[in-house]
TrEMBL record:
Residues 42-297 form the G-protein coupled receptors family 1 profile domain. This is Thyrotropin-releasing hormone receptor. GO terms for biological process: phospholipase C-activating G protein-coupled receptor signaling pathway. It comes from the Eukaryota. One of its GO terms (molecular function) is thyrotropin-releasing hormone receptor activity. It holds the Pfam family 7tm_1. InterPro entries: GPCR_Rhodpsn (IPR000276), GPCR_Rhodpsn_7TM (IPR017452), TRH_rcpt_1 (IPR002120). Receptor for thyrotropin-releasing hormone (TRH). Upon ligand binding, this G-protein-coupled receptor triggers activation of the phosphatidylinositol (IP3)-calcium-protein kinase C (PKC) pathway. Belongs to the G-protein coupled receptor 1 family. It comes from Poecilia reticulata. The lineage of its organism: Eukaryota, Metazoa, Chordata, Craniata, Vertebrata.
């Protein structure tokens, strides 16, 4: 895309000398490939553990699957084409590739933002309105909301089919409209998929924190020790999940901030800032945002750690069983009943 507008996908003419250097190409390709490979593997694992593990099929995890698929779309449609662009210095996917890849980039980005907003609202209802959550926060409702999010975003992102085209003798995939016309489109996109979700997250997580930290057990002063223990563990688990999701939101805000700030500034100044190394930093932050969520789940959620280990165990046991003779009397390894091999 044209760096004066989006600043993350391809090279600009102003920075062509640096971008063509061997040092830049080596670092760029290495960073993007590393982040994309880690992110693709991690997000595929998130989808698999939720789909194949019964106790992981919760409303919150449904939204995390939607987020993982959106992040996969960003990594495949934005990260991997960027590798070929860095190596060749030209657009090699033609006009259809320009339209399709741009569409998928924005689709993944926007669905990611909507999924984060959806699980933020779900967490707020589950913790601050637990009685209402029994009927509102269900897997079936989460699936309907996710379906609606993807349909809305698929339709919304069709706008990009009319805004991009290959330019400069088929060398570059960029915008066919002037920067003055693109500005209101970007500002609307910026508000809907970045500013509003973050403001909503700040308010809702503030309310959640108030409920969890200020008076978690005051209403159970005259109940039995067993009830108190159950309430304590329930609140502790809710707090763990909420902390994990809050970290996801915070990293989303921080890792997208360099790119969003750059494009906002470049939309108003007469001479856009197009330093190649800073553009590489912006790209890497965006790809890292799509790759880091599985790492967060593994680090902060015992359930996800167990599910990831169970997924690996299923694959390993399935591979070992192929080498055991059919008439062998050795007992097969026992697996946790919550995990399903594939």
């Amino acid at each position: 895309m044209d760096e004066s507008h989006i600043g993350i996908w391809t090279q600009s003419h102003a920075a062509v000398t640096v971008a063509d250097s061997l040092e830049y190409k080596t670092i760029s390709v290495f960073l993007v490939l590393l982040v994309c490979c880690v992110g693709i593997v991690g997000n595929i694992m998130v989808v698999l553990v939720v789909v194949t593990t019964r106790h992981m099929r919760t409303p919150t995890n449904c939204y995390l699957v939607s987020l993982a698929i959106a992040d996969l779309t960003v990594l495949v449609a934005a990260g991997l084409p960027n590798v070929s662009d860095s190596l060749t210095g030209t657009w090699i996917y033609g006009n259809a590739g320009c339209l399709g890849i741009t569409y998928l980039q924005y689709l993944g980005i926007n669905v990611s933002s909507c999924s984060i907003t959806a699980f933020t609202v779900e967490r707020y209802i589950a913790i601050c309105h637990p009685i209402r959550a029994q009927t509102v926060c269900t897997v079936s409702r989460a699936k309907r909301i996710i379906t609606g999010v993807w349909i809305f975003t698929c339709v919304y992102c069709m706008l990009w089919f009319f805004l991009v085209d290959i330019q400069d003798g088929h060398v570059q995939c960029g915008y066919r409209v002037k920067r003055e016309l693109y500005l209101p489109i970007y500002l609307i996109d910026f508000a809907i998929f970045y500013v509003i979700p973050l403001l909503l997250a700040i308010v809702l997580y503030g309310l959640i924190a108030r409920v969890l930290y200020l008076s978690p057990l005051q209403s159970h002063t005259d109940t039995s020790a067993t009830t108190l223990r159950r309430s304590y563990f329930k609140i502790a688990f809710a707090l763990q999940v909420t902390k994990m999701l809050a970290v996801v939101v915070i990293l989303f805000a921080l890792l997208w901030m360099p790119y969003r700030t750059l494009v906002l500034i470049n939309s108003f100044v007469s001479t856009p800032y197009l330093d190649s190394w800073f553009l590489l930093f912006c790209r890497t932050c965006i790809y890292a945002n799509s790759a880091i969520n599985p790492v967060i789940y593994n680090a902060m959620s015992q359930k996800f750690r167990s599910a990831f280990r169970g997924l690996y165990s299923c694959q390993r046991v399935e591979g070992n069983q192929r080498t055991v003779p059919f008439n062998s009397r050795r007992p097969s390894p026992r697996l946790p009943t919550d995990f399903y091999c594939f």
